[in-house]
Design goal:
alpha+beta, 19 helices, nine-stranded mixed beta sheet
Length: 529
């Protein structure tokens, strides 16, 4: 019987028989109803089912959102662009790079010249075929400071880009062995003519065509019939993202069946969610962190004694325990953790020290309150985190005034605009990319205004250094400089905590690169038959 059941399971796994036929034939072979149901669940779990509509309730949407991938900066635009957009490459859960539009990527011996062969037969939603010229135009647009692209920092090293038949040749100013990882940046959606004609058109070569675009409310897509990877993604007929910034409402929508997936489950309710019938909590550690950002070039934060006082006044262990409930790890005031291969584990962990904080605060000469801005959308528990920090600062004689900002407009009007606020970063696949995106002096997303020529020089040297031991040593020096003189307070690195209705959908696979399967959950999950 087991041999026959195994054969049935194999047929089911290949989609050659229906669930109903599987159960009937298993029963005929003498399997109990309970055993047959269990076997069916396992057999059909890995078999994508086409059809229906998958819905997600996501935090991180604003009325100011745009379809221009250059401007992606919160969770809704991040997730939606992975549905309609296609990229040169994508990151794998194991930390590697998977080729997409770039069928092959090769480098010169000095890692300064990179050649990408563009895959044949990839079609844009408008019916045109993706060409090397489209890729060149995409990279050119995002490398242009006028685009305000979030990828601008990582493209600063590019000197020339040209199309040569089916190949794109990129010449760098300095060697960079991590170049393929940079091409996975979620801003670099390949668009017709690079999006130069209309960056907001929402046209690319992804599994779904944009059907609904109501910023701050709802986004939707319809399956693109000619998607080149149709057997691997785009299983539902339609996908829908409903913007639900309130965490309680988001959870209620999942529990009530209005949506199949949600992001950013608050750690304080994870145990409750785990008890919900048919709901699975999907948490995974990665490179993401929840920082307190100070502008190094704006008073009073232009005084390093004050910045150090505010760092020493952070009780990281308490913050991790009470805000993340252990779903994370303590930070050390630089944006790198053990998830990065070249992480230096020997850097001393900064600890809460109210006496040293008080001494540094006195040395700074500052008096009066310090305004800290926060919002529910900054990260799960961000308002509570600000209040907890206020209490630990008080023990050092530092008065923190908290301003709770509305969620709509936080990422466009507060983050990277106000001198002391809470934020989040999803991390990047390499240290070089993380530093280039957020802490290079010329980076558009330098949200601490940390602008140090010696830091930039070390970053360029690390990019060009092909000896891993030497590169690790440079990264350690960079970490120490940022830890001791930067404007970044990192209380903790977070886990990504999503939740899924597993009674209704299958295919969810944890990915440490980002929430919601690094943004691919909607297009790679499917509705159960």
């Amino acid at each position: 019987m087991h041999t026959e059941l195994d054969h049935l399971a194999e047929l089911a796994g290949k989609g050659r028989i229906s669930r109903r036929d599987f159960l009937g034939r298993a029963a005929a072979l003498g399997a109990s109803a309970a055993l047959a149901t269990t076997l069916a669940g396992k057999a059909f779990a890995a078999t994508p089912v086409k059809g229906g509509i998958i819905k997600a309730g996501l935090q991180g949407g604003e009325s100011t959102n745009s379809l221009d991938p250059a401007l992606n900066l919160s969770q809704v635009t991040f997730n939606f662009c992975k549905q309609w957009g296609e990229f040169l490459v994508r990151l794998t859960p194991e930390g590697g790079v998977e080729n997409l539009i770039a069928e092959e990527i090769g480098a010169s011996a000095d890692a300064k010249t990179w050649t990408m062969k563009i895959r044949d037969g990839v079609e844009f939603h408008n019916g045109k075929t993706v060409t090397a010229e489209d890729v060149v135009a995409t990279l050119e647009r995002h490398a242009d400071e006028k685009s305000k692209s979030g990828a601008l920092g990582i493209l600063k090293n590019i000197k020339t880009i040209k199309a040569d038949g089916k190949e794109v040749v990129v010449t760098l100013g300095d060697a960079d062995a991590d170049f393929p990882y940079l091409m996975a940046d979620y801003h670099l959606v390949i668009q017709p003519n690079g999006g130069k004609d209309n960056p907001n058109a929402g046209v690319s070569a992804g599994p779904y065509k944009v059907a609904v675009n109501q910023p701050g409310v709802k986004h939707g897509g319809e399956r693109f019939a000619n998607y080149w990877r149709g057997d691997k993604a785009g299983h539902a007929d339609q996908i829908e993202i409903v913007v639900i910034n309130d965490p309680t409402a988001r959870l209620a929508a999942l529990q009530g069946g209005q949506v199949h997936l949600i992001n950013r489950v608050e750690p304080k309710v994870v145990d409750l969610v785990k008890r919900m019938p048919g709901v699975s909590v999907e948490n995974v550690s990665g490179r993401g962190y929840y920082p307190f950002n100070m502008f190094c070039d704006t008073a009073p934060f232009d005084n390093n004694n004050l910045r150090m006082a505010l760092k020493l006044a952070m009780d990281r262990e308490e913050m991790l325990d009470k805000i993340l409930r252990g779903y994370g790890s303590v930070g050390n005031d630089f944006p790198i953790n053990e998830a990065y291969p070249l992480f230096s584990a020997d850097i001393e962990q900064r600890k809460f020290d109210p006496e040293k904080a008080a001494a540094a605060y006195k040395k700074s000469g500052h008096s009066g309150s310090i305004l800290l801005r926060t919002s529910d959308v900054a990260f799960p528990g961000a308002v509570d985190a600000a209040q907890l920090y206020q209490q630990s600062c008080a023990k050092a004689g530092i008065k923190i005034e908290i301003k709770r900002e509305p969620g709509d407009g936080y990422w466009s009007e507060v983050w990277n605009k106000q001198p002391f606020s809470l934020s989040y970063w999803g991390g990047r696949p390499t240290q070089g990319q993380m530093y280039s995106t957020g802490y290079l002096s010329t980076a558009d997303w330098n949200d601490t205004r940390f602008k140090r020529p010696e830091f930039d020089k070390m970053l360029y040297a690390a990019r060009a250094e092909l000896d891993q031991a030497k590169r690790k040593a440079i990264y350690r020096d960079m970490a120490m400089l940022m830890r001791d003189e930067g404007g970044l307070i990192v209380p903790f690195f977070n886990q990504f905590v999503d939740a899924a209705n597993t009674k209704k959908i299958s295919g969810y696979a944890k990915n440490p690169n980002g929430e919601m399967m690094d943004g691919y959950a909607l297009c790679e999950c499917w509705l159960n038959a």
